[in-house]
Amino acid sequence: MSQLLRLGIAGLGTVGTGVVKIVRQKAPLLTERSGRSIEISAVSARTRDKDRGVNLSSYAWEDDPVALATREDVDVFVELMGGSDGPAKAAVEAALKAGKDVVTANKAMLAHHGQALAALAEAHGAVLRFEAAVAGGIPVIKALTEGLAGNDIERVMGVMNGTCNYILTRMEDGGLTYDEAFAEADALGFLEADPQLDVGGIDAGHKLSLLSSIAFGTQVNFDAVELEGIGSVTIEDIRQAADMGFRIKLLGVARMTGRGLEQSMAPCLVPANSPLGQLQGGTNMVVIEGDQVGQIVMRGAGAGEGPTASAVMGDVMDVARGLRVSTFGRPAASLVEAVPARASTPAPYYLRMTLADKPGALAKVATALGEAGVSINRMRQYGHNDDSAPVLIVTHKTTRNALDQALAAMEATGVVITAPVALRIEEV
Ligand SMILES: NC(=O)c1ccc[n+]([C@@H]2O[C@H](COP(=O)([O-])OP(=O)(O)OC[C@H]3O[C@@H](n4cnc5c(N)ncnc54)[C@H](O)[C@@H]3O)[C@@H](O)[C@H]2O)c1
Ligand SMILES: N[C@@H](CCO)C(=O)O
Ligand code: NA
Hints:
Bound molecules: nicotinamide-adenine-dinucleotide, L-homoserine, sodium ion
Number of strands: 17
Helix content: 25-40%
C-alpha cells in the first residue's frame, strides 16, 4: 500500500478545479510515478454551493483557508486563491509554520513576500514550490534549478503575460484596435481580476522578479523591476516596427552586470524572425542563456486550467518523491541582495514623436541627441498633419540614462508636440 500524500486545496477557480481534475482522473498514474497515493483531504473557496464541473463531495470543506492549511489531515497546502496579501498569505504562513509543504501559483504574493516566505519555509523544515507562478505550464523553474544548475546564467528573457502578447499580436495580425483585442483577451479568460496588472506590465513583472531571483541567486526584489505596460504602444508603432523587420513584445529581461542586477519589463522591439518575434497569441516564452549551455528557448501555455494545473501537479509530484529542495533551488539565506540597476546596458532604441513642422525642428532634435552622446542610425519623417509631422528615429546603441538626457533636452526645445515613445530594441 503506497504511503498517502494528503492535499488541502484552497481556491477552486480555474487552477484549483484543474488540479482537482488531475488528482481524480490520474490517481494511478500519479502513484506509479511518485510512489505515493496522492489524495485530497479538504478544499476551500468563497462559495461552497457552486457547480464547478467536478465532484467535491468526498472532501472536507473549510470556509477559512487558514483552518484548511493547518488541518491534521493535510500534508501539502495548495494555495490557488490569489492576491498578494490577505487570506492567501496568511494561510501560506500558517501552513509553513505548521511544517507543512506549500505549493502555490500566486506570483503576486511571491513577488512581494517570497523572500520572507522562503525563509519561513526553511525555518520550519518545509518546502515552498511555485512552478505555476512563472510562465504557467512551462517548467522553467525546474529547468533553472535542476537541469541548468551547472551554468552561470547570463541573461533571462521572457514574454510571460498571455494577455499582452495576445493583444499585441491581434492588433498586428488581425488589424484590431487595442480595445477590440483587449475585449477578445477578456472573453478568453486571460485577464487578472484587475486587468491593469496585465496591461500595466505588473503581472509579468511579478514573474520576472521570481525568474531573476532563481536565475541569479538574488533576493526577490520586485520593486527594482523597471515596469512599463503596453498602453503607450500604438498600431503605428506596430506597423513601423514591422516595416523595419521587428515585432513589439512586452519583454522581461534580467541580467547581472558590473553595475548590478538589471530587471526590466517593457514593450521592446525584437527581430520578427526570432523565436520571441514569432510568438503568437496567449503563449508564453522564456529564453535562458547560460555560460555552458548557450541559449535555451522554452515555449508553451502560460495560463489556463490545464497548463497551470500541470505545473502545480509537477510541484506536488516533487514533494511526493521526497524532493526537499528549498524554494529557489538554494537556501533562501544564500540569496544575495542584488544592487538594482536601471537597464543601463547599451541598446538601440526606437523613438517615435510628433514635431512642429517648421524649419530647424529636426535639427534641434538631432542636436539634443548628439549632445547627449546618442548617435542616430535611422530617421524618417512620415506623413504630415496640419502644422506637425510624425518622426521616427532609430538610435545606435546607447544607455537608457543617456537617452533620458536626450529626451529631456528635446522637450526643452519646444518643437516636440507629443512626448517621444522610446522602445528598447533587444538583441535576442
Ligand atoms: N488562471 C491562470 O491561468 C493562472 C496562471 C498562473 C497563475 N495563476 C494564479 O493562480 C491563482 C488562482 O488563479 P485562478 O485563475 O484560479 O483564480 P480564480 O479567480 O479563478 O479562482 C480563485 C479561487 O480562490 C477562491 N478564493 C479567493 N479568495 C478567497 C478567500 N479569501 N477565501 C477562500 N477562497 C478564496 C475563489 O473562491 C476561487 O475559488 C492566482 O494566484 C493566479 O495569479 C493563474
Ligand atoms: N493574466 C495572466 C494569467 C496567467 O498568469 C496572463 O495574461 O498571463
Ligand atoms: Na512555470
